[in-house]
């Protein structure tokens, strides 16, 4: 039975889809079962309001059919519960998120809400008014469309205003779901199964002196661990614990709330190190800056190179603007528009500048790597605040130089070190609270970092233990307001809130999971998809990672020296200590601060040479990694951005087709190895180190039993999709009206006149 | 016999756009140009078949520094520049003249090198394609389709193969009348038949409708018969590859397209693919963008301005629509452009790659090229201009390159669905120009028979099939019954860096997956061997206990069929 939605709904003037069931039918049929519908509520989750007979629909659905169900708003999410029985639910279980399902939107994940005629809804609405349909754009790039035309007016009004209120209007941090969730969860007891416990244990949290000392020892750094801030006495903006050059005096620690203080990030095996700092206002006259530079220089060979990222990289506002343009290409609610925009896809990519920002960050990181690796100079990167692009660049530098950070645990530790302990203002940057005065500070800086990591991973797959799926999930988790990792602006902020919220005021602070407790979101099988089957572990592991790493590394560094006669640059010098001090005493601060940007073309060509010299050496996945930055090499993160768009799913194809094959054979190798072990083969011991970790095999095989895989694996399964190709609509209108010189298009295929007969 | 060393010149400078000037020795033979510079470690070597050269030009006169220089414009997206001291004027002259002569043998009355190449390969692979055998594989002839000998001596159509498949009910006499109504006599014939639904892919040239809207009862009946041969559908789709404007313009020259009035139950669809001139211009622009260096900042806009990927998209989209109609709609389709040897070949062969897993194997792909391209008269000699110095010839066009590019795009989207690898596709393109093998010589089957190519030249497939492991995709999963529908959105199309930008050393090709996979295969073989050895040992020691241990290792690790 066919009926147009508009004719029944009354509210929506123009029917934009066809339902195969009339609402009357629904009502009569479903009335008996119309008791309260709930998603499986999480501990501490409370339903604020709900409406039934809401139609969820998608224009991309070939049948243009919708699904009726209830729409709810809780303190955690907006949730749609379908009236249809959850058939084939088993199919989804492989990669099911335990916190929210495919029809749930965590409140902090809501990006924008649109009403009728795609009018952006901004909150503060006239009472008693509500649109007949709402479109929700999510931060993880899902798009939901709901029609309220069939619901009771009262319900519809309530749910609409509820959603708008809870998703768009300012709220206090305490209202975030994490707090009620954690109060009601016996965490961590319930999460200690799987390998999770182990994994959590091994992710270095950098919340103790030991963690920092350990990391410094690992890299053979020789600096000073500062524990004077453990109660945030030095400054609430500084991390609880951190490392500074040995020469920094106690007196300097307390100045300017930590501004200008060079914070150690990582030590190169040559002895030089990377430091980052929040830049000091230029007006300071008391030589703090000089003292700090001296302290950094003193770390190794009296050399230091400064890099003010505020001068050379886009601002956080630029990043936001660019990303806002970029993400629009993927928030698709209309097939026709999608194919229209396909025509100008490449130039749109260029115009939004997002890929270029990624390239700039990677390039800057390569420059720093070059200074550390080739020139063995200490590097001090700085920016206002010191916790945005400094975090991006310092993390990237470490990923390129240190294979430890390319392991799953190493990577998580890196995020802890540089971002969480490093004081990246996650709360302000994500603006989960929708505070009007924080709108300016919103910016996807962490996502930008993940994008850069993805580029590296894309170019050098076997070097990374974690998979693309892992990065995508991590980027989604930022918007799930459960994890302490992403809820605060810095250590002291976290500390004070968790203490204040603790139910047992006398005792320990509230215990909330970090995002690294992956079992909160995924079961063990699903977590198997976080590892990269292509990852090649280091062949020899009898000695410490660092030890065997070094000689290889050095060999790779034997670059043709003649190619690198770069003239000495401003801001970079190797000199005697006295000389240094003399210069430091005399030179104006600005000379230092302005150094690198002025010679950027030169820097760029130097980076090219550095890359090319590196490229001629045999590739060592456990050594230095550099990204290729040429145009075609920087690409769009397909999995993250295209996974929900039906028209671009490659059914039966995509990277998973390849990876599953690799996983499969990995599993076979592992099985053989096991058999050998069982036979008690004496040779086995020699091979233990090189034993592959075939974790994904099982998961992938499990997945393929009932589902046809596609390029958006594991995020979308194709159970509902008919196996029909997406034929582009509007292929051509604009093709080359301007692009063809002369009358080429009108000419006959064959040049000679004889062919025209 | 064959390779003549024509010239060796020392102290020639090759001006490499990436490394800079390199001084070395230049050797020219009747097949190749060879440059070697010993100053570098390892030695720099440039090895270029002369067939690749499209143009040789002198650059400037004698410069003040006494250097003369000349450039080679190549068909494979690069330009080479050489220079040397003027002092031996005779040398310069000879280098230039020898290049002009031997790079363009056809223009100089010489034979193309393929006719002199005497390498013997284990397999005589001119037999790789046997039309009868291929049609038999497709289940032909059957109750609706017959194989006709009407074109045995290329009398019906001199650009068609001798073996054609036509409807059973149409006698040869009628075929001739249909031929009169189709451009160049290229009548609708069967290219592929669906093994289950019997829906067919039919190819032909445009009907000679003309300005007056001429009709042919024979042609109309013929298409009706084609539709009737497929009981599943009462419709026929006619895909005209051209933009409708161009198709209409062809009426002025006697051509045109089928009117839906005349052809009952037929639906005409234009696929809007542009002509060979537009494609040539697009490739020229692409070369400007990618060679020698890439401008970093506006890469995507520059790429877009070449329209190259838009053309690729349109071709793939056209083939996808054809494959969809045949597979999902169970409907027969007729495909044509103007003459039916450029765009039509692209579309039918791509649709067949989508529809039939056989064409995704190494051998099957060879059959596909031999059939849809070579035997059906894609004019390789004209489109490539083998040995012809007339580089501005308007007949040249990268039609075949586009087809290979489209196939590459599909291998990207379905990395486990093709038996061959990227190197296979690149090798085909390299030998498209090299003039080493006879495969891509001449314009039609008739000409190839006349020139006795199988007797006088070696087939490219002989070379490729002598070392198939080089060209094999280790990730290949043989799901032959599986139809592939690629996504033809720009989001999933990308420039084939491994081909178009391969001369740029910064864009080093990376195949870590394949590498890793090969390592794993080796590892598995090693372990398997060891397990077997052990088991033998165990069996020998005690026959009783071994059976309960692990069972057969080979069974327990039998690869699971990868998803479909």
From TrEMBL, chain A:
SUPFAM superfamilies: (Phosphotyrosine protein) phosphatases II, PH domain-like. Pfam families: 3-PAP (PF12578), Myotub-related (PF06602). Keywords: Cytoplasm, Sarcoplasmic reticulum. The keyword Metal-binding does not apply. It is found in: Cytoplasm, Myofibril, Sarcomere; Sarcoplasmic reticulum. GO terms for cellular component: membrane; sarcomere; sarcoplasmic reticulum. InterPro entries: MTMR12-like_C, Myotubularin, Myotubularin-like_Pase_dom, PH-like_dom_sf, Prot-tyrosine_phosphatase-like. PROSITE patterns: PPASE_MYOTUBULARIN. Residues 206-641 form the Myotubularin phosphatase domain. Coiled coil: none annotated. The keyword Cell wall biogenesis/degradation does not apply. It comes from the Eukaryota. One of its GO terms (biological process) is phosphatidylinositol dephosphorylation. Belongs to the protein-tyrosine phosphatase family. Non-receptor class myotubularin subfamily. This is Myotubularin-related protein 12. The lineage of its organism: Eukaryota, Metazoa, Chordata, Craniata, Vertebrata.
Automatic annotation (TrEMBL), chain B:
Its EC number is 3.1.3.95. GO terms for molecular function: phosphatidylinositol-3,5-bisphosphate 3-phosphatase activity; phosphatidylinositol-3-phosphate phosphatase activity. Residues 306-353 form the Tyrosine specific protein phosphatases domain. GO terms for biological process: phosphatidylinositol dephosphorylation. It is found in: Cytoplasm; Early endosome membrane. Substrate binds at residues 250-253, 275-276, 337-343. It is a peripheral membrane protein. Keywords: Coiled coil, Cytoplasm, Endosome, Hydrolase, Lipid metabolism, Membrane. The keyword RNA-binding does not apply. One of its GO terms (cellular component) is early endosome membrane. Gene3D superfamilies: Pleckstrin-homology domain (PH domain)/Phosphotyrosine-binding domain (PTB). Residues 125-500 form the Myotubularin phosphatase domain. Residues 541-556 have a biased composition (Low complexity). It comes from the Eukaryota. The active site is at residue 337. PROSITE patterns: PPASE_MYOTUBULARIN, TYR_PHOSPHATASE_1, TYR_PHOSPHATASE_2. Residues 534-564 are annotated as: Disordered. It catalyses: 1,2-dioctanoyl-sn-glycero-3-phospho-(1D-myo-inositol-3,5-bisphosphate) + H2O = 1,2-dioctanoyl-sn-glycero-3-phospho-(1D-myo-inositol-5-phosphate) + phosphate; a 1,2-diacyl-sn-glycero-3-phospho-(1D-myo-inositol-3,5-bisphosphate) + H2O = a 1,2-diacyl-sn-glycero-3-phospho-(1D-myo-inositol-5-phosphate) + phosphate; a 1,2-diacyl-sn-glycero-3-phospho-(1D-myo-inositol-3-phosphate) + H2O = a 1,2-diacyl-sn-glycero-3-phospho-(1D-myo-inositol) + phosphate; 1,2-dioctanoyl-sn-glycero-3-phospho-(1-D-myo-inositol-3-phosphate) + H2O = 1,2-dioctanoyl-sn-glycero-3-phospho-(1D-myo-inositol) + phosphate. Regulates the level of these phosphoinositides critical for various biological processes including autophagy initiation and autophagosome maturation. Belongs to the protein-tyrosine phosphatase family. Non-receptor class myotubularin subfamily. This is Phosphatidylinositol-3,5-bisphosphate 3-phosphatase MTMR2. It comes from Oncorhynchus mykiss. The gene is MTMR2.
